[in-house]
């Protein structure tokens, strides 16, 4: 039986208020060269990543002091709470550093550990996807839905970066890649928004964390799709890093089989 979700209007409105704040900061930051450092995992981080997340955390704590926060740049807070905000201040920091405008801010609200509300905000293209899990999804206020996919062989696939995959995962992805029509690389969270809008069929990634995917999952599932790990498990804060987002739920078993270890 499908779980009844809490009322979402107030939370979604506040999530958009957070996105407004992050957008203003990113638009200003885009006018100058970023200050970049390399994290322990060899990924980029900029002063803007940290400043945006600090601002969003301040706003959340002021509005909902009993909620938890799961973010990319700072220590997590109260992640066992019923409601937890999941933040990626700049998804696609490498694109931000290079001045390629596919980077955005991901803001999600998890309920009981699962994606509930999501915002994907892209300042430089003036695009914002919003959604509520299994309920609704929008692009710039207009409803969006995922599209049907008749066969695995006809699928148009996206992958943010196969370099994030371990050798065994890359071998499984390569096997899948040979069975589909085309794979588009790059795009960061913009490609997940495009999937929600019915522009592609599924996305496959690895090496991700909850803050990379919870907002995308709420929106895609609000648009009629499904987001799981490669083995079909539900997303969680301690997920294994693999992500499979399918616009057409009926294709999920085929994709899981193609990505299987054997």
TrEMBL record:
Q: Which GO terms describe its biological process?
A: inositol metabolic process; signal transduction
Task: List, separated by semicolons, the cofactors it needs.
Answer: Mg(2+)
Q: Which domain of life is it from?
A: Bacteria
Q: Where is Mg(2+) 2 bound in this sequence?
A: 90
**Catalytic activity from the UniProt record:** a myo-inositol phosphate + H2O = myo-inositol + phosphate
Q: Which Pfam families match?
A: Inositol_P (PF00459)
User: Could you tell me which InterPro entries the record lists for this protein?
Assistant: Inositol_monophosphatase-like
MF terms from GO for this chain are:
inositol monophosphate 1-phosphatase activity; metal ion binding
Its EC number(s): 3.1.3.25
The UniProt keywords, alphabetically, are: Hydrolase, Magnesium, Metal-binding
Q: Which residues are noted in the entry as Mg(2+) 1-binding?
A: 72, 88, 91, 212
Family per UniProt? Belongs to the inositol monophosphatase superfamily.
- What PANTHER family does the annotation carry? INOSITOL MONOPHOSPHATASE, INOSITOL-1-MONOPHOSPHATASE-RELATED
Q: What's the protein name?
A: Inositol-1-monophosphatase
> What organism is recorded for this protein?
Ruegeria halocynthiae
- Species lineage, top-down? Bacteria, Pseudomonadati, Pseudomonadota, Alphaproteobacteria, Rhodobacterales
